[in-house]
Amino acid sequence: MGAQVTFEDRVWQVTGLAGGRVHMVAGDGDSACVLASALVAAPGFAVIGASSAPPVVPVLWETVPLAAQERALSWLRHIREVETGLPGGPGSGVPRPEYNPQAFTLAEREAAKARELAGLGWARVSRSTVQRMRLAYGRQGLWGLVDKRHLRGPSPTGRADERVVAAVLEALRRCRGRRKTTIRQVIELTERIVADTHGPHQVRLPARSSLYRLVKALADPAEPPGSAARTATAAGRAGGPPAALRPAERVQVATAGLGTGAVGEDGTGVTVAVTAALDQASGCVLAAVVHPEQDGPVQLTVLLAEMAVPRPLRPGWPALLEQAHAGGPGRRLMSLPDRIEATAARPAAVPETLVLDHGPAGVTSAHLTVCESLGISLEPAPPRAAGAASGALRTLQVLAGLFTRHAVAARPALTAGQQDRADEADGVYWSMPQLQDLLDEWITGVWHHRSQEQLRHPLLPRAGLTPKEMWQVLLGAAGRVPLPLAGQHYGELLPARRCAVTESGIRLGGRRYDDACLDEHRGRRDRFEVHHHPHDPRQVFIRLPDGQLHAVPWALGEHGLRPFDELLRRRTGIVLAHRAAGGGTAAVEPGGLSVYDAEAEAGQW
Question: In whole angstroms, what is the distance from residue 400 CA to residue 416 CA?
Fold first, then answer.
């Protein structure tokens, strides 16, 4: 509320946030109401400036004693008079002569204020004191003028020497579980530990009565000296993590297997899994990556790129989506314009905390550095009983089961002969990029609009909300929109390696990538930084001497660029030729499996 943003090359001020929509007004009086997810993903969107001083937290202010509140408010009037010449702020009257900013410098006004306060009976107030309070007000507002000594709680150890406190804790640890141990024995053991550690008579010990109180204060109330050691007789019930109340506050990462296979890069069927990042508060899927199950975990930076960068901002995304719609087989849930519009409204944000379910995402020191730079905290999933699944894993398993049904139903109808040959190819039909595109479309058009029992609204406790509805409700309740990353960050977050630029382009994973931007760098001995998506061969970026990442498409021989799905189907048809029965060649085409005569087509293959 009140923030100024840049949208469609104009400056707007946020006047309201309700129902997942941001209400704004421009300087010329025009008003606008934009979906929050579409606003932050719009090209050129930016937040202008920030408040110079953070607001005072009302709860902390209420805990301050009344005398300290009055003292801080008195300092506030004096600081305002030093800075502006008026105790009530600008426009509240005429400044006194000694505080006129036009006649005296800031240092002279501070010195005059120190003399005035000393004359009023304020103790130990000098010019440096006034300056320190003025700077504290500039950093923290009214909270910076509060005497923090009133907020300090009593220490259980008082003013005891830290070395004595450490010795008492060590003595309690050694005596733990001994039934006949007394506090006197703990004190005597403490004296020996201090003498052995620091030498005789090097540390002054407090009186026996003070040591007695110190032992009582540091001992565990549930296990005082002389009590039997507690043993675990049953599985302990660990406290759960705090509930997420804001969008993208806690995002859980989990992996589940899909019930359908896919055609691997060698043309054979592979077992497929999906690693997803689910927002705990709203149930929205911020990222979902399809990958071969035997390839291991998905890298954490790949998940961050998928969840934190809106798809419309990614380089070349509209062209890739149009290409997938033009060449992908099967039935579509929505048309291309409808999907572009729906995807633009799909939530994307930088999470505050990532909860990793038994390490499904590979975490390295480099990944930790990226998370630290983005302000993301990492937490392991809370422990649970053997065989039990976490909430995120159960949700992902339900998602995988429903999507498997959709993938099977979306496959085009095959004839009896085509079905027999499809079974010989392990029954798989989709390529990995096709399956990823199908999953993204299904999540956008079905999952985010499917009611879930665990998503409830206080005003509608008996009606389950959809993840999209819950995201919009929480945006209004939180009063803030989590911001995503810019489009150029997508390539930066992908894994990188060094590659040479040859006359034919870049060789990466048995594929050749070429583009006109590589012309002046061909044949050099330099090796360039290349970022690539491990599970999507279409996403390859190279950093050229200008310091920017440039997208590089996939090329094939002298035929130039061809649709990605067409190339995969041709490659799949060649490999399946060796597996078809009766000398026929099975090739995957947009309409399904087609059979050719092996001898007649040998020359063309």
Answer: 28
